[in-house]
Amino acid sequence: MGSRLFPDAADPQDGSLGNEKRRIARHMRRRLRRARVRKNAFIKLVFDNNDDNLVDLIEGEDKRKKILEILEGKILEKELENSIWEHKGYYRINATDGKKERLTMIEAKVMGLREKLPKDLLISVLFHYLKHRGYFYESELDKENIEKNETNSEKSNSNTSDYWQPDLINKHPSQNQLDFFRKFGYYMGAKENARYDAKSYLKEIETLLQVQGLSKSFSEKYKKLFWHTRDYSEGPGSIQAPTIYGRFQKKGKETPYKNLWEKTIGKCSVYPDCNRGGKYSPKAELFNFLNDLNNLHIDGDETKKLSKQIKQTIVDKICLEILDPENNKFGLLQKDNEKVVGKIEELIKKDDPYVATVNGFRTLRVEKKNVKKKWSDQVVWKKIITPLNNLVKIARWLQSLELIDKNFHILDQKLNEKTNMTDLDFINNVYDCASRVHHNKRKAKNILVDFLDDFTEIKSQIQLKYPDSNPEDIVSKFVEKLSDFTQTHSLSYRAMDDYIKKVGIEKSENQSQFFPNRDLNRKDLRDKLSKVKRINKTIFKDEIISPTARRAFIQTINVLNKILKVYSKNYDINNITIELARNKNTYAENKSNKDEKNKNNALTKEILRDEHFLDDQKCGKIRKFSNTDKLVWKLAEEQDWTDLYDGRPIQKNNFISSWRKYYQIDHIIPWRRSLNDSFMNKTITSIINNQSKGNRTPYEWLGNEGKYDEFEKRFHKLSSMNQKKLKTFI
């Protein structure tokens, strides 16, 4: 049906992306447009300011043209014979040649912090603040980048690294910049200036406005103009200029969304009319934790689930520890929840002494650090269970405010007399408030005020316990301790409530068993498609998918419709196979292949050094090593130089030159039975073991001889082996 291939987005020469160039150009257009808007807003503010007469004191008839000249740095030079400091510092004398020089903006700003400036110079200084406002970064990642820039800047110039002293912290940014210039003879670069945020400049502006004696109304309007930025959560467009990409869809009509994130949140896979809940919300944490418990089984038998009694014991003990921070048996707030897993296993085995192993835990792949073996997967697979971090933090905070009873239980469905809702719902509402604050930091104060108005019991308890503090500040400080607001769960809070209430610890169903028809919306789609002759190519227009995926869907549907149109009358079509394009010869793939080749070359050199064939001091001619030689070396390294079948050590000395005499590569699952010739199905063993094993699996061979238990213990100790390969051995 023809080719559906598209040009690669990356440049074949250097791998640069066309969309990246467009993004940079779009960013520059926006910066210029926003600067122009601020400039016009500032001019309007100056003309509208009747209290300070900034315009009246400017000479000339066309005052707007004169202001534009001031803002563009074209201040007309006045005929001042002694115009050094006598006339408010328009000029200074160059110490080298004695010539007059116009003041820089940094010098003018510092002067304005201690004495009044001429009106035209003051206008120029105020506009300069609007052009260089510092950074407005709010996220932790951006803060880390700023700190990284500071560190790199200090390391890059040892002469300036001792400049940043504690006594300079209380100085304004312009004062620090001028001191830097006087000490080193040049101004700070972009990296050094990145340490100053907009709040630092705002404090400096407040000092300057006070020294200049400008009116309060002008000062407030100017500070508002300086501080104005569009929050990401507001999105593009406005009620006067709507756009389909923002919150406002039609001109003059209010949006149903409070912020842009609400529009982009996906829908629940069980209840399509409900938005998804937060991935790390207290309800989601409890839902995932109960689901993990219901996935556990005893001694490798998936039919032997945990009893209701043991699950009740586990949850009860966790609830006791939630409100008792000193009781740290579970280690609920530790980053590594290995302690929680160990405590759960201990409780299960204590309940039933005949339990040998507890299976069904999720595992986390942890790479070892400072590993000498560079070419094998040096990993440790740790058992994990869903942590309850946000649930524990919020519950302890509410308990400190005496809003949660000491007999608190996370599965209790009784309404709290103080809040008129369940404790879990109350805890989850606090998290949702924290999430809104995180996504709307510029409106954080308003959000906290509304939250405390809705939950007056929190406000009253805070006022009771902290009479000298502002309730909004107390809640704000606590919200900063919470984390993980950026992702959403696949389910809504309504679906989570269903599982927690109807399953919880009463049944042993996991979420897949409880929601067998969670893809009801897709089932409805399949039913509709089965009744039509042609598929509408716009069926995915409302899905939240990338443009590339959307285009692939449209092209696929076009192909399917054409096939059905041409062949369905004469043929009974059972299935249609669509072949994907082969790997492209792109810049990224070529670079990846080159890196892989360099990695293999490094491995070969490592082998040669260990075999004493290659000396860094004296490199002569050496024979080439085959891919088989490299393969057996990798296998031996992965096995820690031990024959896994019998536990005997593999001799490393002169291994490459002599391995064929004593060892062979064995397929763990015989090739005739698995047709699997991958690295995951191979091991190196002695010739005797390989011949004895024959066409059998390790269990069939060693199980009959009673050695399988020792074999199983042996390979479980290997941290370097891939988890998938361990399963192949089992």
Automatic annotation (TrEMBL):
Domain HNH Cas9-type: from-to ranges: 582-730
Top-level taxonomic group: Bacteria
Binding partners and assembly: Monomer. Binds crRNA and tracrRNA.
Residue span of region Disordered: 1-21, 147-167
Membrane-spanning intervals of the chain: none
Organism: Mycoplasma amphoriforme A39
Tagged with keyword Chaperone: no
UniProt KW keywords: Antiviral defense, DNA-binding, Endonuclease, Hydrolase, Magnesium, Manganese, Metal-binding, Nuclease, RNA-binding
One function term, GO molecular function aspect: RNA binding
UniProt KW Acyltransferase keyword: no
Protein name: HNH Cas9-type domain-containing protein
